[in-house]
């Protein structure tokens, strides 16, 4: 009996696990190559239905290296979508299954989706999230382009002497395409905390003072892994709530989910239109 490669095994090559997952994906979907990948965070799930025709929808736990979602409101499937545009056919890989660093499964698990996307042939990845906003003018439901990040997790998906330049991690070209769809899109710096607790008002003020505009618990580690794997990265946050201390109202995960659901149709259309231009 052949054992499935285990991402938690330090002797295992995480890129070999990503390749194994991509091979199973190709077999299950009948699609040899996916051109673009999307990681859908809180509020963004509806975009998958607007991209095109679903070829296959696979429970993530059935692919090597993935596990079932650990958080209510987060998806647990991986979808292959056929996009027909201007006489050309492409395929999008929609990763509804995201492992957060706070789940305690290790950074390899966090990076696995991006690495599998690259192994599946993607050249571009779109990373989305729901987050807290530090700008009082960004009401719940505001989409914001990520132009840079600050990683406060104390971790990296890169192992050993692996040096990767992150100067232009969040693609200027792709942000330009997004603004062709919606010229009013704001942009800002995303700060990833470890979670799962929300940030304190003092931590939010610290994030603001060091240059942050958005705070959340995902994306930065995935973006680093994506860049290392050769992917061009577009990051978009959905402000689901003002960050702690920006608003006097206590933070609630239920309210984050509700804000995402309310903004869902509008931001899903935005994301589908952006992907159509990539």
Q: Reading side by side through the largest sheet, how are the strands ordered?
A: 5-8-7-6-9
The CATH class name reads Alpha Beta
Order of helices and strands: HEHEEEHEEHEHEHEH
What's the total helix number?
7
Strand content: 15-25%
Percent of residues in helices: 25-40%
Q: What is the third-level CATH name, the topology?
A: Rossmann fold
How many structural domains in the coordinates?
Answer: 1
The structural class is alpha/beta
pLDDT under 50 segments (min length 5)? none
Q: Given the C-alpha coordinates, what overall shape results?
A: globular
Rg from Cα: 18 Å
Q: Between the first and last Cα atoms, what is the distance in angstroms?
A: 43 Å
CATH architecture: 3-Layer(aba) Sandwich
Q: How many strand elements?
A: 9
Mean pLDDT: 91
Report the CATH superfamily.
Nucleoside phosphorylase domain
Largest sheet, strands/sense/barrel: 5 strands, mixed, barrel
List the helices and strands and how they pair.
Layout: H1 14-29, E1 36-39, H2 47-51, E2 53-59, E3 77-85, E4 88-95, H3 107-119, E5 124-133, E6 142-151, H4 172-181, E7 186-192, H5 201-209, E8 214-216, H6 220-228, E9 232-242, H7 253-277
Parallel strand pairs: 1-4, 1-5, 5-9, 6-7, 7-8
Antiparallel strand pairs: 2-3, 3-4, 5-8, 6-9
Pfam family, one: PNP_UDP_1
Family: Belongs to the PNP/MTAP phosphorylase family.
Subunit structure: Homotrimer.
Description:
The chain is built from 7 helices and 9 strands. The protein starts with 13 loop residues before the first helix and ends with a helix. The chain has one domain: Nucleoside phosphorylase domain (Rossmann fold, 3-Layer(aba) Sandwich), CATH 3.40.50. By secondary structure, the protein is α/β, with parallel strands linked by helices.
């Amino acid at each position: 009996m052949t054992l499935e490669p285990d991402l938690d095994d330090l002797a295992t090559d995480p890129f070999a696990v990503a390749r194994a997952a991509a091979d199973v994906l190709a077999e299950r979907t009948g699609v040899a190559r996916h051109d673009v990948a999307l990681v859908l965070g809180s509020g963004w799930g509806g975009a998958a239905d607007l991209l095109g025709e679903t070829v296959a929808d696979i429970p993530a736990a059935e692919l090597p290296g993935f596990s079932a979602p650990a958080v209510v409101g987060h998806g647990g499937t991986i979808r292959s979508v056929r996009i027909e545009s201007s006489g050309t056919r492409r395929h999008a890989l929609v990763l509804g299954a995201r492992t957060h660093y706070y789940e305690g499964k290790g950074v390899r698990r966090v990076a696995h989706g991006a690495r599998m996307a690259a192994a599946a042939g993607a050249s571009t990845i779109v990373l989305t999230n729901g987050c807290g906003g530090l700008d009082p003018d960004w009401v719940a439901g505001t989409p914001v382009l990520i132009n840079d990040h600050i990683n406060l997790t104390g971790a990296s998906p890169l192992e050993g002497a692996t040096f990767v330049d992150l100067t232009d991690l969040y693609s200027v070209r792709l942000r330009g395409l997004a603004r062709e769809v919606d010229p009013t899109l704001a942009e800002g710096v995303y700060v990833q905390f470890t979670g799962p607790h929300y940030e304190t008002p003092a931590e939010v003020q610290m994030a603001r003072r060091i240059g942050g505009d958005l705070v959340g618990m995902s994306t930065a580690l995935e973006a680093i892994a994506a860049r290392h794997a050769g992917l061009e990265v577009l990051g978009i946050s959905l402000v689901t709530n003002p960050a702690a201390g920006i608003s006097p109202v206590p933070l609630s995960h239920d309210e984050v989910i509700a804000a995402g659901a309310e903004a869902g149709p509008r931001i899903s259309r935005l994301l589908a239109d952006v992907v159509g231009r990539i």
